[in-house]
Amino acid sequence: MKLTVRDVSEMLEVSEKTVYRWLTERKLPGYRMSGQYRFNRAEILAWATANKLNITLGALQETEDSDQPLPTLADGLQSGGIFYRLGGADRESALRSVVEVVRLPDEVDREFLLRVLLAREQLASTGVGDGIAVPHARDPIVLHVDKPLVALCFLERSIDFGALDGQPVQALFTVISPTVRGHLHLLTRVAFALRDAEFKGLVLAQAGREDLLRAIRRISATLQGPRGVPVTNG
C-alpha cells in the first residue's frame, strides 16, 4: 500500500506542512507519482526510527489486514536466529557474514539474498542510529521460505554503515519475508521494539539470547488492539 501525505501526517501525528518540510530538510523517503507524493510504509517507519520520532500503535495495527496469523517478533527471531561475533570490515562483508549464518532452507540462494540486501543499501543506509541497522530488501523477496523471519546479528567490531547519526553499526536486525504483509509486519515490530529503552539497552550490550527474547515477549504483550483487545500476532 502506497501512503499519501495525509496518511503519513496521521501516522506520525504531525501536520501535512511538516511532512512537506521533512521531504526537503530531513530527506523523508517519498516518490512523485502523477505529480503527487507517495510513500512506502516500511520506509517511513524505518526513517521515523532513525530520526527518533514516536511510532504510534495505530501505525503498526494498520498492517494487520488478514485473518492469517503472523509470527511475533520473538517467533521471528527464534526462526532466524541470534548470532554473535560475526566478522566484517565493511557493509558488504558484514552482510555476507549475516547471510551465511541466518537460518534458511538449504535451497535458498544466499548469494541472491546478499545482492538484494546490498541493492537496498545503495538506495539509502538501513542504519537507524545508535549502532543498529535493519537490513532488508526494498520489497519482499521471493525465496523458498514459508514464513517471515528476522535474524539479530552482532558484529565482532563496529563498521561504518552510513547511518544518519554517523555512528558505526554493531547490531543488525535482518528481515526476510516471502510476502508484503509479513515484510511490513516484522519491520514495524522491530521499529517498535527499538523504541523500548530496556530492550534497546540489551541490544547495545549484546545480551544473551534468553534475555533478548524475554524482553521481546514483554514488548509484544504491550501491543493492544482496539478497546484493549490483545493483538495476538504482535
Kindly describe this structure.
The chain is built from ten helices and eight strands. It is an alpha/beta fold and 234 residues long. The strands form two sheets. A five-stranded mixed sheet has the order 4-7-8-6-5. The longest helix is centred in the middle third of the chain and has 14 residues, at 110-123. The chain is globular. Residues 224-234 have low confidence and may be disordered.
CATH architecture of the largest domain: 3-Layer(aba) Sandwich
Largest sheet, spatial ordering of strands = 4-7-8-6-5
| Rg measurement, Å | 17 Å
Task: Report the strand count.
Answer: 8
Enumerate how many helices there are, as a single number: 10
Q: SS-based structural class?
A: alpha/beta
Helix content: 40-55%
Low-confidence stretches: 224-234
The overall pLDDT average reads 83
- Secondary-structure element series: EHHEEHHHEHHEEEEHHH
What share of the residues does DSSP label as strand, in percent?
15-25%
Q: What do we call the CATH homologous superfamily of the largest domain?
A: Mannitol-specific EII, Chain A
User: What fold name goes in the CATH topology slot of the largest domain?
Assistant: Mannitol-specific EII, Chain A
Q: Which CATH class of the largest domain applies here?
A: Alpha Beta
How can the largest sheet be summarized? 5 strands, mixed
Number of domains: 2
Principal-axes shape call = globular
Oligomer: single chain
State the distance separating the first and last CA atoms.
20 Å
